[in-house]
Amino acid sequence: MNIFPTLHTERLRLRELTPHDAPALFAIYRDAEAMPWFGIDPMTDISQAHALIATFAHWRTQANPGTRWGLEYAGELMGTCGLFKWNRQWNSCALACELAPSARGSGLMSEALRSVLDWGFAQMQLHRVEALVHPRNLPSQALLGRLGFTREGVLREAGFWAGGYQDLHVFSLLAHEHVKVSR
């Protein structure tokens, strides 16, 4: 996990986040309407975006590392996605993502996640990727379905934000299922 893995798709460059990205990341994370889906409260200060970028960079140095890509489209940061909580012994990790409101519905996240999943299954030798999604976040559930994920069940009150405990749906994708979807 020494050199950051820059990925390219038809429309995107998936790259390491830098302090220069803080204003765009802050704009995404201060969106109060979207925050119930992100699992955190909205940002109120740009310093929080700088801290989040530092957190994402720090993930790569952990015993169970993670990689968070910035999604660059037409020279602008439109969101992030990543694989984290990598359990090397179990060959598993978690997936998370968010997208700027102006880019939602464009297919950019689907394009990005296909590339990230390809990379994760090949380079990290993953067997399983899981994602946690709020029950009312229907667009993310549909996206995971298009990528071949299976809904496994509900983690009752597994998250806490917006002043209360939140149920989360758990979805998973296994390596042999990803191969079927990629073709």
TrEMBL record:
<feature type="domain" description="N-acetyltransferase">
    <location>
        <begin position="12"/>
        <end position="177"/>
    </location>
</feature>
<dbReference type="InterPro" id="IPR051531">
    <property type="entry name" value="N-acetyltransferase"/>
</dbReference>
<dbReference type="Pfam" id="PF13302">
    <property type="entry name" value="Acetyltransf_3"/>
</dbReference>
<protein>
    <submittedName>
        <fullName>GNAT family N-acetyltransferase</fullName>
    </submittedName>
</protein>
<dbReference type="InterPro" id="IPR000182">
    <property type="entry name" value="GNAT_dom"/>
</dbReference>
<dbReference type="InterPro" id="IPR016181">
    <property type="entry name" value="Acyl_CoA_acyltransferase"/>
</dbReference>
